[in-house]
């Protein structure tokens, strides 16, 4: 038998690729036997029904939890409802409780709005940012309408501009555009921004 014919009959590498070594086959079979099926994997990671259940607070326990939550920080009404519903048995009971807490002034959207205004002003944020944050908390911005009007937003924006870019009024269009973007990102209105970046020290 020629070498050419012999190599065709015993092409070991091809046979190995198609069928694998005997040892490899045994290893694969053992692995398949040991590997859990999809269903068994699901059972391994299944959470027992008892662990999925909420605590189911009601009555005095729910009320005590609500007071504990409110002593840590101010919550908007919508926020408090959602937080309590995570642990309460009945959403209707939560709604009734939160309404009572609001009437008794334990919970107050007014205080939440005023606190938000004060903290955001200290952080150098403008009225647009404050309104967005209140909206996210589902708090009516009308609660602080007067405070928003009475705030000198030009002075607020000017102080930020001076802190970051100095007091000089720039004539460079690129730098001016950069200052405008900076103050817009902070939440100031365009007319406020223009006044702030053009304000001179003596003004």
TrEMBL record:
Domain of life of the organism in this record?
Bacteria
Give the Polar residues compositional bias ranges: 25-34
Domain RecX third three-helical stretches:
151-197
What GO terms describe the biological role, i.e. biological process, of this protein?
Answer: regulation of DNA repair
Q: Does the keyword Cytoplasm apply?
A: yes
Has UniProt tagged this entry with the keyword Cytoplasm? Answer: yes
> What's in the GO CC field?
cytoplasm
| Coiled coil (UniProt feature) | none
Pfam families per the UniProt record, alphabetical: RecX_HTH2, RecX_HTH3
Where located?
Cytoplasm
InterPro entries for this protein? RecX_HTH_2nd (IPR053924), RecX_HTH_3rd (IPR053925), Regulatory_RecX (IPR003783), WH-like_DNA-bd_sf (IPR036388)
Every copy of the RecX second three-helical domain together lies at: 108-146
* Name of the protein described by the UniProt record: Regulatory protein RecX
